[in-house]
Amino acid sequence: MIQRNATTQWTGDLKSGAGSVTLDSSNAGQFPLTWASRSESPDGRTSPEELIAAAHSACFSMQLSGLLSAAGTPPESIDTSAEVSFGPRGDGFAITLIALTVRAKVPGIDPAAFNETALKAKEICPVSAALTGTEITLDAALD
């Protein structure tokens, strides 16, 4: 079993406090975060939602590449963005939507087969699976 980990250190209350998240497994760095970076302007800080967007776009791209390659149509390039919507819901805040947008160069594939493969990648991507219960949309097209 492969495991990855990150550590967050937080000081103070929610609204005026601050913290940082460290990507321990990769030693890729430490990223500052605040409530304002989640609910207002990032101002050079990250948020859990931005980290989810990064994880989802990376996972989806890798899953799509694997499926396309297995079908004999390896991609030249895949560009995926993930937009995570976060806002009030019920008595608190929630991730309300994740919108994936992918543009790819895939020689030898027709648009219908590409869209079918992209939909399958969205369904079986491990990050998508971990986010079950959150609406995830997909806009997929060939360049």
TrEMBL record:
<dbReference type="InterPro" id="IPR019904">
    <property type="entry name" value="Peroxiredoxin_OsmC"/>
</dbReference>
<dbReference type="InterPro" id="IPR052707">
    <property type="entry name" value="OsmC_Ohr_Peroxiredoxin"/>
</dbReference>
<feature type="compositionally biased region" description="Polar residues">
    <location>
        <begin position="1"/>
        <end position="11"/>
    </location>
</feature>
<dbReference type="InterPro" id="IPR015946">
    <property type="entry name" value="KH_dom-like_a/b"/>
</dbReference>
<dbReference type="InterPro" id="IPR003718">
    <property type="entry name" value="OsmC/Ohr_fam"/>
</dbReference>
<dbReference type="Pfam" id="PF02566">
    <property type="entry name" value="OsmC"/>
</dbReference>
<dbReference type="InterPro" id="IPR036102">
    <property type="entry name" value="OsmC/Ohrsf"/>
</dbReference>
<protein>
    <submittedName>
        <fullName>OsmC family protein</fullName>
    </submittedName>
</protein>
<feature type="region of interest" description="Disordered">
    <location>
        <begin position="1"/>
        <end position="25"/>
    </location>
</feature>
